[in-house]
């Protein structure tokens, strides 16, 4: 068991080195040689953990996804009013901190790189659309979602808003800052919810 733990820890360290290389040099600089150097490993040692570049890149991106999912699960487990919980979850998806901004920048770079390699990694399966669909369904379950709205359409609209905010937060951080993002998301959440007192109890996502 100790060897397994050490192995996974080392793989995570290599993945984190991969993120740093992508942030500093872009995907074209994310060679096995550069990543090994950043991780402080020889090429042979790195290949002990990852036999090919694509295998390493996919692992690094899956780790980004897992970290985001873990943050969302922690928020979902909190005892928050529905609208507040929805906002807090969306703020774990849209980059508003140095950590999440770095994750998003790496994710966008990798998505562009992987768009012709769907046999290796399908970046469209990032889990964001599914998470948003569940949030819309959750509002409906809590009797907050406006009856006149179409859940499928609102899921697509919110997905587009999240994508747009994420991109512009990365490209224009001084304009699309955390306060602006919170204002836009809060406004949108209120626009799809009924005008009534929220119940402090929560359902299950």
UniProtKB/TrEMBL annotation:
Question: Is Nuclease there in the keyword field?
Answer: no
Residue stretches making up the HTH tetR-type domain: 8-68
Organism domain of life: Bacteria
Q: Which residues bind DNA?
A: 31-50
DNA-binding recorded as keyword: yes
One molecular function GO term is: transcription cis-regulatory region binding
Which key words are in the record? DNA-binding, Repressor, Transcription, Transcription regulation
The record, for SUPFAM superfamilies, names: Homeodomain-like (SSF46689), Tetracyclin repressor-like, C-terminal domain (SSF48498)
Q: Which PANTHER family match?
A: HTH-TYPE TRANSCRIPTIONAL REGULATOR PKSA, HTH-TYPE TRANSCRIPTIONAL REGULATOR RUTR
**What is this protein identified as?**
TetR family transcriptional regulator
């Amino acid at each position: 068991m100790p060897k397994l733990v050490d192995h996974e820890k080392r793989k995570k360290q290599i993945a984190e080195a991969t993120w740093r290389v992508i942030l500093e040099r872009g995907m074209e600089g994310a060679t096995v040689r550069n990543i090994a150097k950043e991780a402080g490993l020889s090429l042979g040692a790195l290949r002990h953990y990852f036999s090919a570049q694509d295998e390493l890149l996919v692992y690094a991106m899956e780790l980004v996804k897992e970290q985001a999912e873990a943050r969302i699960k922690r928020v979902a487990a909190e005892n928050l009013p529905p609208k507040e919980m929805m906002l807090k979850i969306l703020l774990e998806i849209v980059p508003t901190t140095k950590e999440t901004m770095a994750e998003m920048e790496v994710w966008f770079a990798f998505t562009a790189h992987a768009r012709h390699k769907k046999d290796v990694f399908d970046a469209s399966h990032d889990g964001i659309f599914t998470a948003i669909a569940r949030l819309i369904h959750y509002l409906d379950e809590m009797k907050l979602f406006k009856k006149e709205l179409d859940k499928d359409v609102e899921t697509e609209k919110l997905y587009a808003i999240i994508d747009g905010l994420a991109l512009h937060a990365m490209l224009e951080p001084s304009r699309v800052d955390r306060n602006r993002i919170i204002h836009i998301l809060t406004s949108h959440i209120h626009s799809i919810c009924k005008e009534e007192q929220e119940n402090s109890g929560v359902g299950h996502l």
